[in-house]
Design a protein that fits this description.
The complex is a heterodimer of chains A (599) and B (350). With 599 residues, chain A is an alpha+beta fold. Chain A contains 16 helices and 24 strands. In chain A, 26% of the residues lie in helices and 20% in strands. Classes of the chains: A alpha+beta (599), B mainly alpha (350).
Chain lengths: 599, 350
């Protein structure tokens, strides 16, 4: 639906259909955040310093498999010859969706939750550019062309003429500009205002030309701009208060929209009903005429609805996946997402904690059979990863230390760290046994609980006592990013982005203890990120990100576990679904309902 | 008697208000003690920076001292501006736009939701009240209709098979969590047999009376379980006690038919404690049961409470808190007054 931002966070704001999966993942992985993952291969010896240790048996990256690097970003003009007007032909029918949490608001600049994001994507078209589902490159979407100046600082977007609001008014560059101006007003509550810091000016040169200038060369900027502003109808909103739902009815009941659907009815915590927007700019109205989302608070009930055909989709937990695949009325679509959720074990690197010592981190890492853990916890629905980007990323580096299961090596590492083995326990110089505190949350997550007890078991086998503390979500978040944490180890997950640069934030010293909860400090990594962000030659960037992956894997601030496969169960009557690395939502407007043959 | 009743009501009413105020003080403090805060949704979100976080915290006035926040919630923050330096105590939103200032719960402004992005708390609650009350009253009626006859029947057949069956059944049902029974019935009756809908209050696009009853029946029956169990227990116990009274023996001795003895002499006396128990049950039902509403996707105040608690939406939490507390206090008061009508011996003394 939303052709840009939505695509950036594939799992999330792509349409309703994928929503079930996003929720399943939310349970597994937790809230949404950033980053990306890498797949594991047996690798180099870890060393304390970032030295390259080439290993003979290294499988090379299969170039055809890896996503392509983006084009360089200076002095280019890209023109689209895509046909966007041919109407769709398989129209009609109703799609019944089910979700376990409802949207909060239709205001695109107040919410951050996934449910609201997908509701908003139904009614508001955004995205000057969108990700191509095959190449994962940004291509023109609402613009017919764009160009970037030689110095890489001025971006000019030429909007397609003929894009209309649902009331027939033209959607112009002034709508973008007006929306941008509101969003950047600090009193207007936009939670991600700092994301716009790289922009120095944002102007509408005429009805169809937008010019965006940035302060300095910043490589992710094109992707950032792609879905930066989802325009709101200036002619409707202009005289309404921006964020007061009491005096601005458009906030919770948008009447003039630009997306594939318009809102018909919304009862909080009960249902939302949408109908196709005949004025939708991309090939006209979507095939499916009516889109209904029902809210149920429980995953099991939602899954029952999928099984009985009361809904066309529904969340499938990993435990239910095998059963769902066998259901005669359901097709389960599966894909390895370009923006996946990956799980890890964070090791507290602050002085005073045992895990401050790199050999302790190595020891803990070697002591855990990550392959077996992945298999047992995720039932084959995840791939192991060894550093911070998955093998679906164009910057993926297979040549990083992976710490394959080796309990003897683990004990050696503890001895190198100054510990001793005594009566089967790891003890320090005073004979005190090593004890670790592990926290995880939410305490309702079966997956995380399983990971926790598996880790406890592995570490106990080499003689380390582990105290597990399961926490409610908010308590857990607060404990993880506490100024003075009391844990040694925590279980976490990141939602990755396709743009590798964005996960810089979790390794930056300035983000301790918030996003960088383990307190990882490495100026070399920060320098490499800065370089990769300001020189947009793809090869240059790839090399930097690959070095970063190796350095971080070698320092082992995390025990990298696995990244998740995605899947979505759909009733067989829904046709036209094509899973790609972007998920299944990218072409949801082309999905259609198979009409029952008339008797 | 009428004058003393009025004076009694005034006195109890004032006491109730003080009680309510104390409750808000405790509630407010306790909610703030829970880890996390309304901005926790940003905690693990790498797309925001510390500056974003602080800007929002300032706008919503979350960084102010607890006392100031309580005062703003209780008495409003619009008048802070009149105090020297008082502007600094207002939330950023209030300073920027006077219409966004909280007017305080004493002026019946419950404030605006943080989770629901500026929606008025009172609107959010009002949206939910009909659903909760519908379920509550249905359960109350079912409790009485099932519980009272069951209690009477058990008492009259004391020590015989029906009594044992009812007692064992109540113990069995009572030892299993009711929401679990609800989930089980939902999956069996709804999922496998398709007899009842899988939750919700109405079919989307339908909403006829029949459709609503169809959705109501299972949640009402299940949430009435605790009601009819306690009702039947109380009634059985009281019946047995009353049945041994001298006046019952007298009634029987003078040849009154057993049916009349029960109806005229036993039941009115046995039902008294039920009226007392009613306040508790009423409160239970009207403040909305979180568990049942979650299990049955019932769009009532309990569901709202879950959302509010999980997102640390203090204004909504406090709004629900005040309403349940008020309902509870009114419930107790109502029962005390009703008691006087049921039992002539009760006198109201001011």
């Amino acid at each position: 639906m939303d052709k840009s931002l939505g695509r950036l966070f594939t799992l999330i704001s792509v349409p309703r259909a994928v929503w079930g999966v996003a929720l399943a993942l939310a349970l597994v992985g937790a809230a949404w955040a950033v980053p990306v993952a890498a797949e594991g291969t047996p690798v180099a010896e870890p060393t304390a310093t970032p030295v390259v240790t080439p290993e003979a048996s290294q499988p090379s990256v299969d170039e055809s498999e890896a996503a392509k690097a983006p084009a360089s970003l200076q002095g280019i003009t890209v023109v689209s010859d895509e046909d966007v007007t041919t109407p769709r032909t398989k129209r009609g029918g109703e799609y019944k969706d089910v979700a376990t949490s409802d949207a909060v608001s239709f205001h695109p600049y107040l919410t951050t939750d996934t449910a609201s994001g997908s509701y908003q994507a139904m009614v508001y078209a955004g995205g000057l550019l969108r990700l191509d589902e095959k190449t994962l490159q940004y291509i023109p979407n609402m613009v017919e062309s764009y160009s970037i100046s030689e110095d890489g600082l001025t971006f000019t977007f030429k909007l397609r003429e003929g894009i209309k609001w649902s009331d027939g008014q033209p959607l112009t560059a002034h709508d973008f500009k007006w929306t941008y101006d509101q969003v950047t007003n600090p009193a207007n509550e936009f939670p991600y205002l700092s994301q716009l810091d790289f922009i120095s000016s944002y102007e509408a040169l005429d009805d169809y030309t937008l010019q965006i200038k940035i302060k300095q060369v910043y490589c992710p900027s094109l992707g950032q701009m792609a879905g930066l502003i989802t325009p709101l109808p200036k002619h409707v909103w202009e005289n309404l208060p921006w964020s007061d739902p009491e005096r601005n009815p458009e906030i919770n009941k948008p009447s003039v929209v630009s997306g594939p659907y318009r809102l018909v009815d919304w009862r909080r915590d009960q249902y939302a009903v949408f109908e196709a927007n005949e004025n939708y700019w991309y090939h006209g109205a979507p095939n499916i005429s009516r889109y209904v989302i029902e809210i149920v608070p429980d995953q099991d009930v939602a899954y029952q609805k999928l099984k009985t055909g009361e809904s066309d989709t529904g969340p499938i937990t990993p435990e239910n996946l095998e059963e769902a695949r066998q259901l005669p009325n359901i097709t389960v679509y599966e894909w390895w997402p370009a923006a996946s959720v990956w799980s890890y074990v964070g090791l507290n690197m602050r002085p005073g904690f045992p895990t401050h010592n790199i050999h302790v981190r190595y020891g803990l890492n070697y002591a855990v059979d990550k392959d077996l853990l992945t298999e047992q916890v995720m039932l084959g629905q995840a791939k192991r990863l060894c550093s911070i980007y998955p093998d679906t990323s164009w910057v993926y580096n297979p040549d990083v230390p992976c710490y394959d299961y080796d309990p003897e090596r683990a004990i050696d590492e503890f001895i190198q760290a100054g510990y001793h083995v005594q009566d089967g326990l790891i003890v320090d110089d005073e004979g005190k046994p090593l004890r670790l505190k592990l926290i995880f949350g939410p305490n309702t997550s079966k997956t995380r609980e399983l990971i926790a007890v598996t880790l406890q078991d592995y570490w106990r086998r080499i003689g380390i006592e582990v105290e597990i503390q399961a926490m409610e979500w908010a308590t857990y978040l607060e404990a993880v990013s506490a100024q003075e944490p009391d844990w040694d180890v925590y279980i976490g997950a990141w939602q990755s982005t396709i743009e590798p640069h964005i996960m810089y934030t979790i390794w930056a010293e300035e983000n301790i203890p918030d996003l960088n909860a383990v307190a990882y400090v490495n100026k070399e990594v920060e320098r490499l990120y800065a370089e990769a962000g300001s020189n947009c030659d793809p090869e240059f960037r790839r090399e930097r990100y690959q070095q970063i992956q190796r350095i971080i894997a070698e320092e082992s601030p995390y025990i990298f576990l696995f990244y998740n496969k995605s899947w979505s169960g759909q009733n067989n009557r829904v046709k036209g679904i094509i899973p790609t690395a972007l998920g299944i939502g990218w072409n949801s407007e082309d999905w259609y309902i198979e009409q029952a043959p008339s008797p | 008697m009428r004058r003393s009743l009025t004076r009694y009501l005034v006195r109890r009413g004032l006491q109730s208000l003080v009680l309510l105020w104390l409750a808000t003080l405790i509630g407010f403090t306790v909610y703030q003690l829970a880890p996390g805060g309304p901005l926790q949704f940003l905690d693990d979100d790498p797309k925001r920076t510390a500056a974003d976080y602080n800007r929002l915290a300032e706008l919503y006035g979350l960084e102010r001292p607890l006392l100031v926040r309580y005062l703003a919630w209780f008495a409003g923050e619009d008048w802070f501006a009149a105090l020297p330096g008082g502007q600094d105590l207002q939330s950023g939103q209030c300073r920027a736009d006077a219409t966004r200032c909280s007017r305080g719960v004493i002026r019946l402004d419950f404030g605006r939701s943080l989770h629901f992005k500026g929606m008025r708390v009172i609107d959010l609650i009002a949206e939910r009240i009909p659903a909760t009350f519908l379920l509550g009253f249905s359960s109350l009626v079912i409790s009485a209709v099932v519980g009272i006859p069951a209690g009477i029947y058990a008492a009259l057949n004391r020590g015989k098979l029906p009594d044992h069956i009812i007692r064992v059944a109540t113990v069995l049902v009572n030892t299993v969590p009711e929401w679990w029974i609800g989930l089980l019935l939902l999956i069996i009756l709804g999922g496998y047999l398709g007899l009842v809908p899988l939750g919700g209050m109405e079919t989307i696009g339908d909403g006829s009376l029949l459709d609503r009853l169809h959705h109501l029946i299972l949640p009402a029956l299940v949430s009435a379980i605790s009601g009819w169990i306690s009702t039947s227990r109380i009634i059985r116990f009281e019946m047995l006690e009353v049945l041994n009274q001298d006046y019952v023996r007298t009634a029987r001795a003078k040849g009154l038919r057993e049916r009349l003895v029960i109806l005229r002499h036993v039941l009115p006396n046995a039902i008294l404690p039920f009226v007392t128990g009613l306040s508790g049950i009423l409160l239970l039902f009207l403040s909305g049961s979180i568990l049942f509403e979650v299990v049955f996707s019932w769009p009532g105040m309990g569901r709202l409470a879950v959302l509010a608690i999980n997102s640390r939406d203090y204004p909504v939490m406090m709004g629900l808190f005040v309403i349940s507390a008020a309902l509870g206090i009114i419930g107790v008061l109502m029962v005390d007054v009703l008691y006087g009508f049921v039992d002539p011996r009760v006198k109201y003394e001011a």
